[in-house]
Specification:
Strand order of the largest sheet: 2-3-4-1-5
Radius of gyration: 40 Å
Strand content: under 5%
């Protein structure tokens, strides 16, 4: 092939559509130029070096075809370790029958015979002598070729000797190379650089033109900078039954060219390097499992069989995949031929024989002086440090439960059998030097050593551990603190990061210890493989395989038992080196039971960190693994309670309730027993078994009769859980009232708070009196187990009393005291109260971008709030879809169903279906009355039903409903409830009396605390209509305009549209543009308002915008008026989402103060609100 063909990149690489990559063209041009000189009679030596799979063979074969095209004769030989014991095997491949030695006895004489044969070939015409993989040549052939190259220029023979040689940094010490004894003036050398990312991507697109960029990038990464691996991967992905996707496991590939290529790459690197590569794969796999998961968790890699079986010594010359000319990554390699070290293939003769041969070749490490990586510690150098993240605590014994959960038929059984306590311990690794690779080490990953931590493909794993491991001292757990400047997310400074591996230091030390290798050589290998593209550094600076598929291929054929044992060894080594908790726990996830106390401590600490970071799925994985370790009864109870709570809350496992049941059977402190009982009761109530939940708490209540403070907590929980069953609720609250009447003091503040809340919903107490009692109860001492009930109940009552700021503070305080991994009825109740507060303030933008999933258990409080917000925002189609998403006939009888009925009634009324709306409101009222909830503080169904009666032509029925609502509202006596009842009663009454009632409603709501804005807008709209009906159109316009402006500022589209329609009815023009709210601000007003909201003073704003201070004040005054605010501190909220957090991808607003439920909150679906 001509040089121009190479320059155009059109030289064939192999069968297929691939072109010669540009990284090989320089080497091809060099050979072509030297071949032209050889044809002119000037011999030369060209050496092509490159790492495994970089395309040495491809370039050499293409050069041979080009030479033949130019009239040269090509003598070819491919060296193999199979011929290492056959003298002159490679040379005889070149010369064929002319290589017969005849009577020649010694090596010198035989070499001369072969040299004469070569000269004979050269006499017939120019020769290209192409020797592939010269580093694998037998000793005599190697020496013969070196000596021939030494004299080519002197003999003036038309011979070009072109050899390829593997040059890659290996963990094993390198051996002398082909040019070691040759003068540099005699050698023309090219080292094949890996492909760039662009070149590799171009090759992928040539094979798959329609491939998306992300898929192409995955292919490039899985190719790991090796054209051999890239071509093999594309072959697998292109197979008829293959998957047109880049998987993470080689089990998904067929026919398996990719794992075969990776296996050959490992074999070529030698046993020492292969062990380090497999150890890194184990480490990398654990890192994946210990990191926060962005997508699906990395699956545990099973023992996938090699598609071609294990490559043996005999395979390594015949089954070798073709060396294709593709690669990706950065050029970074150093010379170093195949290291000769005993390994899984068994010993084999030195391919070079005795280096002190007749040609005077002397021993010496090839390339050591010129090694660009060297043996000095580099970016992956060694270090160590302390481990300080664990936890411990004492537990006691309590009596067991009966065999079944009362009333449910549910047996107290464990979801899985816990392992018995381990009396055995594994031995500590013996002290050894890193340079002695023959000393037995329990943590080595050699495939031939019968050791439980070895990644051996053939040796069975022992089923028991050595009973001699000493116990470890459990370090104390430190409280989380704010990360100081200069530290990472684990709170480590630069020195600690180097110690723990954050900067890549510890991986080299860990790998060296696990594989029994020299740490400096391992550090150099990591650097070299990163340069080639097989490894990449992550955000922590750790070396990782470029793609999970490459990592899995490195572990192909290693039995699962060996992987687990290796993960255990890695975890213990990382613990010793002070690695982060998540990293150690990630290794333990893939390991079998350790049987030592530190393993459970690390896993529980990692679960705590995951919960604090709102990663409940990760926390569950760590807790499940911790249960495989031997645990004292108290510890096992706490872990089972926490895991069962998470599984119930996330609704993705059927094991939650059985696991909580087993937790209740475990021994533990009385406090932990109460926590387990409350968690189980909450789960049962959420599953529709409220009676079983109350009975479970009653059983534990009877067993703790001597602990009145714990009994009180159980009875309060029973009262809250009874909210899921109307009849049960009446019974439980009756017992609670009777107990309080007999002995009010022992009931405790939380129990008395529940009675105050019950009285509020039953219409028996005023808001002022209820809040007075609540504040007194909050000031009294409270037990840690009952305080959450007290705070949650007080927050709900404060919200009903329109003490919204105080309710906010109580919610924040209550949520701060909640344990994130423990199922508790007050957690969702507090979240519900927070949503109630925002709804009361009319913040209709506080809803998710998409409505939540419709659970099979029926609608929840969140669905009701979202439905109402959609209605108020005028998003009728979305509201209709959400309302129709539930079959309310199959929903459980709970307070959440009642709230959703009220919300659906509002949705139907907004669409003009007043008959359907009336049915929903009346059904909501019937259900609430059955629960003794008659006050309008929760669901003001009477006023809503009265408006439907008026629309349907039933004023008498409407008047009765409105009057009853006003009577109950005056009992509670807040402006919101009374003003709303007056507004509807005015509409039902009409005439002069109606106009007076409407005016009273407006006056009352104007003087209401902040937060009653939605009711004021409705009252202004009602009074405007009353005035219009009375013929006072001018006054009506004033009220209607104010209603429209307030609705616009509030974001209440439904009310704004109603106000605009009423304005048009009285002859007023509808405003064409926004006159209030954030949208009404001019550009200058918005810019200045944003700066003021960020805390800038007027003078600072004036200086930054080059304006007069008076101008700034004028613009702010105008902005205040349009936004409807009076203080600078209100600017941030008034400017809305555009100022504080933008809008989501659906264009729906969010809120900076309450961005919505956390990941852990979204998992929870239980609450306890009326």
């Amino acid at each position: 092939m001509c040089e121009r063909a190479y320059e155009r990149g059109c030289g064939p690489v192999s069968d297929g559509p691939f072109d010669q990559p540009r990284e090989h063209r320089e080497a091809a041009r060099l050979i072509a130029a030297r071949a032209a000189r050889a044809r002119a009679g000037s011999g030369a030596l060209v050496v092509l070096r490159g790492a495994t799979g970089t395309g040495r063979t491809t370039v050499l074969e293409a050069a041979g075809r080009d030479a033949e095209a130019h009239g040269m004769r090509v003598l070819r030989a491919r060296c193999s370790p199979d011929d290492a014991a056959v003298p002159f095997a490679a040379v005889r491949q070149l010369l064929g029958a002319q290589g017969d030695f005849g009577q020649a006895a010694g090596e010198r004489e035989q070499a001369e015979v072969l040299r004469r044969a070569l000269r004979g070939h050269a006499a017939e015409g120019p020769l290209l002598v192409a020797v592939d993989d010269v580093h694998l040549a037998d000793g005599p052939s190697h020496r013969w070729l070196v000596e021939t190259a030494r004299h080519l220029d002197r003999l003036s023979l038309p011979i070009l000797l072109a050899v390829t040689e593997r040059s890659q940094y290996d963990v094993d010490a390198p051996r002398p190379g082909f040019t070691h004894t040759l003068s540099p003036a005699l050698v023309h050398t090219r080292t094949l650089a890996p492909l760039t990312g662009d070149s590799a991507a171009a090759l992928v697109r040539a094979r798959f033109p329609a491939a998306p960029p992300s898929w192409t990038e995955d292919c490039v990464r899985a190719g790991g900078g090796s054209p051999l691996l890239l071509r093999a991967l594309l072959d697998d992905l292109a197979a008829p039954d293959g998957h047109l996707a880049v998987p993470e496991s080689t089990a998904a590939l067929y026919p398996g060219a990719y794992p075969a290529a990776v296996s050959w790459w490992l074999d070529s690197a030698g046993p020492g390097t292969a062990e380090v590569a497999r150890a890194l794969a184990v480490l990398d796999e654990g890192w994946d499992r210990g990191e926060p998961l962005q997508g699906s968790p990395a699956a545990a890699l099973g023992p996938a069989p090699h598609p071609y079986g294990t490559l043996t010594t005999e395979d390594r010359g015949r089954r070798r995949p073709p060396d294709h000319a593709f690669d990706a990554g950065r050029y970074g390699e150093a010379p170093g031929p195949y290291a000769e070290t005993p390994g899984p293939y068994g010993g084999r003769p030195d391919p070079y024989g005795d280096v002190s041969g007749p040609y005077g070749e002397t021993p010496g490490p090839y390339g050591e002086a010129r090694d660009r990586y060297g043996d000095a510690p580099g970016p992956y150098g060694d270090a160590s440090g302390p481990y300080d993240d664990a936890l411990s605590g004492p537990y006691g014994e309590v009596p067991p439960l009966p065999d079944q959960v009362p009333g449910s038929g549910l047996p107290y059984c464990a979801p899985e059998t816990a392992p018995p306590p381990h009396a055995h311990r594994r031995p500590e690794p013996p002290t050894r030097t890193t340079s002695d690779r023959t000393t037995p080490n329990p943590t080595t990953l050699d495939r031939t050593t019968p050791n439980p931590t070895t990644l051996d493909r053939t040796t069975p794993d022992p089923t028991t551990s050595d009973p001699t491991t000493p116990t470890r001292t459990t370090p104390t757990r430190t409280a989380p603190t704010r990360t100081p400047a200069g530290r990472d997310r684990h709170g480590r400074g630069p020195a600690a990061r180097r110690t723990a591996g954050g900067d890549g230091a510890a991986p080299a030390a860990l790998l060296a210890g696990l594989a029994g290798a020299d740490p400096a050589r391992v550090a150099g290998w990591l650097t070299a493989m990163t340069g080639l593209g097989l490894l990449r550094k992550d955000a922590e600076g750790r070396p990782r395989y470029a793609h999970p598929l490459l990592r899995d291929a490195v572990l192909t054929g290693v039995p699962a038992a060996r992987r687990r044992a290796a993960h255990r060894a890695v975890a213990e080594a990382m613990l010793h080196h002070g690695a982060p908790t998540d990293a150690v726990a990630g290794q333990l996830l893939s390991a079998g039971p350790v049987g030592a106390a530190w393993a459970a401590e690390v896993l529980q600490a990692a679960a705590d960190r995951a919960l604090r970071a709102e990663r409940p799925q990760d926390a569950m994985a760590f807790l499940r693994r911790a249960l495989d370790e031997p645990l004292p009864g108290g510890r096992r109870q706490r872990l089972l309670t926490e895991l069962g709570s998470l599984e119930c809350a996330c609704r993705d496992s059927a094991a939650g309730i059985p696991r909580l049941t087993e937790a209740l059977r475990q021994p533990g402190t009385p406090q932990d027993r109460v926590r387990a009982a409350v968690a189980l009761g909450t789960a049962l109530a959420g599953d529709g078994r409220a009676r079983a939940a109350v009975e479970v708490l009653g059983v534990v209540d009877g067993q703790l009769a001597d602990r009145p403070e714990l009994v009180g907590a159980l009875r309060i929980a029973s009262a809250l859980l009874s909210d899921w069953d109307s009849a049960l609720r009446r019974d439980v609250y009756g017992l609670l009232r009777a107990a309080a009447a007999r002995s009010p003091e022992p009931s405790g503040p939380a129990a008395r708070a529940l009675l105050v809340r019950h009285a509020a919903t039953a219409g028996l107490v005023s808001a002022r009196d209820a809040m007075r009692q609540m504040r007194e109860l909050l000031a009294a001492p409270a037990d840690a187990l009952t305080e959450p009930f007290l705070l949650g109940t007080a927050a709900a009552v404060a919200q009903w009393a329109d003490e919204l700021d105080e309710a906010d503070r109580l919610v924040d305080r209550g949520l701060a005291g909640q344990r994130p991994g423990l199922l508790h009825p007050m957690h969702q109740a507090l979240l519900n109260t927070r949503a109630d507060i925002e709804a009361a303030r009319g913040r209709y933008g506080l809803l998710p971008a998409e409505p939540p999933v419709a659970f099979a258990a029926g609608p929840g409080n969140t669905h009701a709030h979202i439905l109402l917000a959609l209605v108020e925002q005028g998003r009728t189609a979305e509201a209709r879809r959400l309302a129709d998403a539930f079959d309310l006939g199959a929903a459980p009888d709970s307070f959440e169903l009642n709230r959703f009925l009220y919300a659906r009634g509002a949705q139907r009324a907004a669409e003009g279906d007043h008959a359907g709306a009336l049915h929903d409101f009346l059904e909501c009222g019937r259900r609430q009355a059955a629960r003794e909830v008659v006050s309008p503080v929760v669901t003001p169904w009477r006023t809503a039903a009265a408006e439907c009666r008026l629309a349907l032509g039933g004023p008498r029925e409407a008047l009765a409903l409105a009057e009853e609502e006003l009577r109950l509202a005056r009992v509670w006596d807040t402006p919101r409830t009374v003003g709303r009842a007056l507004r509807v009663l005015a509409a039902a009454t009409g005439g002069r009396r109606g106009l007076e009632l409407a005016g009273e409603s407006v006056r009352l709501l104007r003087d209401a605390p902040s937060g009653a804005e939605p009711e004021l807008v409705a009252a202004l709209l009602g009074q405007g209509r009353q005035l219009s009906a009375a013929g006072q159109r001018t006054r009506a316009r004033e009220f209607l305009r104010e209603a429209a402006e307030r609705a616009e500022r509030l974001g209440a589209v439904r009310l704004r549209v109603s106000a605009e329609e009423a304005l048009r009815a009285v002859g007023a023009r509808s405003p064409g543009t926004a006159r209030t709210g954030s949208a009404a601000l001019t550009g200058s007003e918005r810019r200045i308002a944003k700066l003021a909201a960020d805390g800038r003073t007027n003078t600072e704003i004036a200086d930054s915008l080059h304006l007069a201070r008076r101008t700034v004040e004028t613009h702010l005054t105008s902005a205040y008026k349009k936004l409807g605010i009076r203080r600078r501190g209100e600017l941030r909220d008034a400017l809305g989402p555009d100022r504080t957090g933008g809008r989501d991808h659906h264009g729906h607003a969010g809120h900076a103060g309450h961005p919505g439920p956390s990941a852990a909150d979204r998992c929870r679906g239980l609450s306890a609100q009326p």
